[in-house]
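If you are new to this repository, start here. Below is one unmodified record pulled from the training split, so you can see the exact layout before writing a loader.
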Amino acid sequence: MNNTADLIGASIRRTDILEKVLGKTAYSQDFWMEGMLYGGVLRSPHPSARILVIHTTAAEQLPGVHAVMTAQDIPGQKLYGGPTILDHPVLADDVIRYAGQAIALVAAETHDLVEQALRLIEVEYELLPAVFDPSDALKVTAPQIGTHGNIASHEWLQRGDLAQGFAEADVVVEQTYHTTWIDHAPLEVECGVAWLDDQGGITLRISTQSIEYQPQIAAVLALPPEKVRVICPMVGGAFGRKLDITVELYIALLAWRTQRPVSLAGSREESIQAYSKRHPFTLHYKTGATHDGHLTAMQIRIIADAGPFVYRSALVSVHALMLATGPYAIPNVAIDVQAIHTNNIFTSAMRAVGGPQVNFAHESQMDQLAYELCMDPLILRRLNYLQPGQTLPNGQVIHDAVQLNEATEKVWQALEEIPRLAEVGTRMIGRGFSANFGGYGVPSNAASCAIEVQPDGQVQVSIGVCDIGGGQSSSVAQIAADVLGMPLAKITLRLADTMTTPLVGATAGSKTLYYCSHATSMAAQALKKKLLEIAADLCEAPLEGLLLQDGEIIVRDQARKKVTLLQVIEEARIRATPLSEHATFRTPQEKKFDSASGTGIDWPGFTFGAHAVEVAVDEDTGEVSVLRYACCYDVGRALHPQSVVGQMHGGVAQGIGFTLMEQVAIKNGIIQTPSLREYLIPTALDVPEIATIMLESGEGLGAYANRGIGEPPAAASASAIANAIYAAVGVRMTELPITSERIFSALQQYEDEF
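And here is the target side for that same chain:
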């Protein structure tokens, strides 16, 4: 039994952990219904083509096939997409924009029948001109891909006098950097089940980061939104992939057509081929500093590959713009970010949206400046770190603690204390560093929670949060138990169901605990007040003298004078007082950033931290081994330290993959790495021991002064490792992934030059 003092700031056993360890957690693919059919999607092999004819008769006549659907069979809206524009056809009926685009759907009695039916559908195509390089897509002669041309998004910002800033600089470093397409590779692929109810509505049980796509799903089915119910069970990983619609529309259409439950779970190959990726960036940085190390100016131009549809490219552009200068005070800044349409796979949100790409560039720049100035890279950063009261390039003032100096010291020191992953031998050793920050929350957003005491003394918390593996549901229970002074076992949860739970927005953007901590705490505080008011009457004691603890309400100065929760519940029944509360938390009502005016904010709050790494480089082969790693963040306050450590570990592991091995190789729009045999992600052998250090300034926007920590740890590895490689062998790597082949080539070129 946990007392109140044990709940917040302690790594108590998470509410979801036992079922997961025992293999009893029911994910979307584990759901089965009587009469359930299986769905499949026919996808284009071409990146740019016109559909002339779709022949479906042979597939429709195959015994056991219950539906074959094309765009002509969609009863309602035929487009879907991201938050700013609906531009992605549910099923293509005219022009194909990328290899993997959906053309037809099949529902059949077995998986084998689905595959047979898909092979029987014949499509006649006319191949069309395509463009695969964003720079080529900007030419006037390029094929026009997007709804409004080939610029999916354009954001810009200027502050100060750039010319003057560079004139004041004693050293200027200019460099171009490249990142590539990255797959989210969640353990659980995109999947779900849909079925019709007795009232003419449709229910979806779906692996998602948001249950709030009812309007889009309903519009495609030509139903009112209230006729669509979305349920999200536990999710086996997402990382931004499931922030957008994946299989929802396919299973909804097939269930609507067949009047039967339909399940769809694609293969890993389909997941890689057909769904969104992290944006590849080309980043051109020009940075100036005085001889004593003070930054004077930074000019940044970024081109991102959006693929053929907008999705979250506008969001990625704004986020990248806000993070592009790093956690530094720079008086003169000009930033220009464009996301460009191509016929490559479409791109959208991935963990730390825009952050990993720009961090690779700005932290590489900082190390290059330090070497040019003959200055310790850590000292250069310390001279320029943002401080409370200073402003970001958009004019936003930093109000809370910025413990970057502390984080810098701790991660650099920690490298000395971590055992190395492997023996060094004759390899060259180097250490690197990077600092970063990330935002959390969205201005003018809201999240709600409902809470109710049951007759048996259990407390039910209803909240529409999707648990994607980070302990989101457990945190809600932990907060409710803390406020109400109850054991965690007394809290039951109702989660992520559009019919039964209040909405909190998507589980994304490092904002979930910020939102849920407030909404849950507010509802629990209101319920607690109601319980104490009744108990005060029963105990004939003042309200302020009561303590709710372990299912009892005690008079503080008279420990023997108390009432049980069940007595209070009975009294509430007699009084006809409902023991339930509903609360809504709203984020600051501030204007969102707008390039046209150069005003507004992107995030209400920020999380600051640092990474340090030691690598070994084999000069004969270019092979890199990450030997030791440390990261440190000011989390405001850690509600569940073990979960925070998990976020840091996972972020660093993903960052190592982003840096050294992960690449969705694409040639003329066709993915060349179709499975996890070709698309490599880190294993236990690639990830060293990671020192995870938490600072707790007590200054965060959450209900317990907590800060968002889901994304920042995933954004700073590439620059730290690139800087360590430079320290080891003297070559500056500017393109990701940093493979052994690229290092070997750079070493050969270095030897030829010197």
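Two things worth knowing about this chain: The mean pLDDT is 96. Residues 512-539 form the longest helix (28 residues).
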